[in-house]
Amino acid sequence: xxxxxxxxxxxxxxxxxxxxxxxxxxxxxxxxxxxxxxxxxxxxxxxxxxxxxxxxxxxxxxxxxxxxxxxxxxxxxxxxxxxxxxxxxxxxxxxxxxxxxxxxxxxxxxxxxxxxxxxxxxxxxxxxxxxxxxxxxxxxxxxxxxxxxxxxxxxxxxxxxxxxxxxxxxxxxxxxxxxxxxxxxxxxxxxxxxxxxxxxxxxxxxxxxxxxxxxxxxxxxxxxxxxxxxxxxxxxxxxxxxxxxxxxxxxxxxxxxxxxxxxxxxxxx
Amino acid sequence: xxxxxxxxxxxxxxxxxxxxxxxxxxxxxxxxxxxxxxxxxxxxxxxxxxxxxxxxxxxxxxxxxxxxxxxxxxxxxxxxxxxxxxxxxxxxxxxxxxxxxxxxxxxxxxxxxxxxxxxxxxxxxxxxxxxxxxxxxxxxxxxxxxxxxxxxxxxxxxxxxxxxxxxxxxxxxxxxxxxxxxxxxxxxxxxxxxxxxxxxxxxxxxxxxxxxxxxxxxxxxxxxxxxxxxxxxxxxxxxxxxxxxxxxxxxxxxxxxxxxxxxxxxxxx
Lengths: 269, 269
What we know:
- Two copies of one chain form a homodimer.
- By secondary structure, chain A is an alpha/beta fold.
- Chain A has a single domain, classed as Rossmann fold.
- Chain A is built from seven helices and eight strands; from the N terminus they run βαβααβαβββααββα.
- In chain A, α1 runs parallel beside α7.
- Residues 260-269 of chain A have low confidence and may be disordered.
- At the A-B interface, α4 and α6 of A face α4 and α6 of B.
């Protein structure tokens, strides 16, 4: 398979750096092709602005989504944006690797999403009528690809449990997994999370590599998170509210996952 | 009161730009002092890296949290970081104003948080023992200040309702309101959200200004979101799981809000 790792950490000599190198080695040894977008090494511009569009005229009011759609359609995006989109199209599997900072991604990675996920590419795709609100949430440009978070967390695992004070990890990741991966069509694999990363002792590292390797060699077969596809009948139109009764006993983000279902985009095995 | 608006939009001639100017005028007319950190105008560096610490030596492995704590303690932070911290200390009310991009803040604003919310300032504050896990979630350096999101959203309000496909807006804002505002001690006011911002007609704008003005003139008296203070007895130690039974009928993020309680940091009126 073709695997893209979008990697955001400022220090190559870090736990994240080691795990990124380890992942590359494991995946290449297994016969996959790997590309890494090492955002710090690339000095990726994090800030979305008029400079992202080669033909934007300064005297014109910038409407970022519209300008993004135009530049995508006309081939006038900043070249580094088009290059990252080409990597996404190339990839069968997309991995975001990052340390959790303030309960989300580092700014440099958010800025990769803000700029690369252009209108016409990652959103505003498909028919928008009273009967259909685009190809999104399980459908779209990136449909059929698998996506996964590899993440280090400074805090303790218990704090991110179902009753933990920081909030359940799957809910904290919902804006990324559902809102960024699933929205343009990707199938989402459960995240690989290393907790208490700042307190890791050298003797704990080997077990982390072993667990990560297990996840990497099963990328093609791991059961995905069962997010509900927008256009498969679970949502009312035009409001896109989940049909009453489908939520079972869940509330909030959890209702957008089919509890005990087989995987979404994969044929039954 | 002293009011800090941290503002992130690339286009001054935008709905966000107009609302920011309107807020400044309303607040100043009401006798408040207002500072605006206009991150795009300031060309704020979004990316947290070794350049944030004046005395970091390139040959030393960068551990961002530790380096941040040291630089904060020693007065060797990049001057623009210290300047933003001083604004936070000065403020009685902190407003984040931004367009919702990919279910979170624009990267430039996330990068303001990543860099300004230093160790020793916004986290790693207070006693860390088996009996107490720091001053955070309702306590800390920014305790007593009020914080609020003013946000535009391209999508429709129904999509962000309790059953909406994008997820409930209060859950999408939890990582910001609970994880960024409440964590270092700020009291959180309900957000002011403008939906369908890309489809706004001129005749709709006046009503938005009127609703925003109502929120701005009641900043001091608006009932806050009732997030649970970490050290007030609702959480088990050392795991910081919410004590069984306190969640009522809620799950996920919602259990960290006391449902029918009076406000958190205000005296009973």
